[in-house]
Amino acid sequence: MFFLGMVLRNALRHKLRSLLTLLGLVVAILAFGLISTVVGAWYANSEAASNARLVTRNAISLAFSVPISYKQKIRAVEGVKDISYANWFGGVYKDPKNFFPQFAIEPESYLRIYRDYLLPADDLRNFIRDRKGCVVGRRLADAYGFKLGDTITLKGGIFPGDWEFTVRGIYEGREPKTDTAQMFFHWELLNESMKQKAPRRANYVGVYVVEIANPEDAAPVGQAIDQLFKNSAWETLTETEQAFQLGFVSMIEAIVVAIRLMSYVVIVIILAVMANTMAMTARERLPEYATLKALGFGPAYVAALIFGESLILAAIGAAIGIALTFPAARGFSALTGTLFPTMQVADATVLRQVASAVAVGLLAAVVPAYRAARVKIVDGLRSIG
Questions:
Q1: Which among 58, 382, 17, 41 is positioned nearest to 244, based on CA atoms?
Q2: Residue 167, strand partner residues
């Protein structure tokens, strides 16, 4: 208790210096946690992807479609349990900044495969029955104030024109990481419109979503599907859903890496600030450390005092920074709307914050503790005044 009391008194002796050091630690730990959470949000969809689902698309690019006639051929491949399909729509709601993912889907099979999208049975029936109906995720509904029965008008980009949909359901996520910032409507509505406006674009889908019976068979099943259409006019590329999602992340991977590096730069900067603080503290207290040695306290005890003071400051700063990370993440999520499907502070992020704080506390005290432990009693007492 005597040792702890001394460490606490030392840590708070220079209140302004301690306060400024703590403020820097709080900002650094908060920034580190928030940046890590944003990076995690970029990978949220890939981490939530099922290893029991494959995505089949045009082998050239996602910009090209594949025929709807492929459905039955893929369904017949051994190991395929279920199949559905979807088209990226790419419309805009009222203003170009109001952009969110919209997919034209086959309702029954798609929502049967994606069991993490929880939709009340009555809403599902209403959606299936209404060709102009749509369902939206809870986060999307909260962001734009959508309610059951509302009409949503989208201005098409890939598929020109004004498209009106009636909200027939609002789905929830089975888990916090489930993406609830999407909109789904009937592929048949889109296809019928293409038959009238652009017949050559009709009867094509963007991707097939394939559920397989055994996740371990993902590779052979994918190869079997692609082999069916080899040397055809629309060759396919089949990959796991996770690989498909990571393909989007890879487009901006350099930016994500730069953001992650920035978080570590912040920690290095505060380490330098903390080390400077502890060095100043150690220089000021050389006479005190010399006195302790003269009274019989060993070098290890003196070094422990400095390490203890540094770790206490780091612990207090980390505790406040971590506590502020959660409301900061929620606020950032609200400001960015539906840009990030999920924004959850992961346990791993908190652990990294704690580890960073401990590392800063220990490393900042190494040199000052070493010097204080090695100071000679005579030299330390001579520095008085």
A1: 58
A2: 134
Instruction: Give the pLDDT of residue 174.
Output: 87
End-to-end Cα spacing for the chain: 31
Report residue 202: phi and psi, to 5°. Answer: -80, 160
Query: Which tokens in the block code for residue 261?
Result: 């590096």
Distance, in Å, from the CA atom of 50 to the CA atom of 79, rounded to the nearest integer, reads 16
* pLDDT confidence bin for 21, thresholds 50/70/90: confident
CA-based nearest residue to 58, from 221, 260, 237: 237
3-state SS class at 118: strand
Residue 340 has pLDDT above 80, yes or no: no
In angstroms, the CA 54 to CA 198 distance is 30
What confidence category does residue 5 fall into, taking pLDDT thresholds of 50, 70 and 90? Answer: low
Question: From the CB of residue 31, how many other CB atoms can be counted at a distance below 10 Å?
Answer: 20
> If residue 238 lies in a helix (H) or strand (E), which one and from where to where?
strand 236-240
Span 233-255, pLDDT tens digits: 999 999 988 888 777 666 666 67
Q: pTM of the entire structure?
A: 0.74
Q: How many residues does the chain have?
A: 385
Report the alpha-carbon distance of residue 238 to residue 223 in Å, rounded: 7
Q: In one letter, which amino acid is 11? A: A
Q: Distance between CA 344 and CA 174 in Å, rounded?
A: 15
Q: At a CB cut-off of 8 Å and minimum separation 6, what does 77 contact? A: 221, 224, 225, 228
Residue with tokens 């900044």: 97
* Average pLDDT estimate for 12-27: 81
**356 Cβ neighbours under 8 A, 6+ residues apart:** 29, 32, 267, 318
Q: What is the pLDDT of residue 385?
A: 46
Question: For residues 357 and 37, is the Cβ–Cβ distance under 8 A?
Answer: no
Q: What is the pLDDT of residue 323?
A: 94
Does residue 43 carry a pLDDT above 50? yes
CA-based nearest residue to 158, from 214, 130, 197: 197
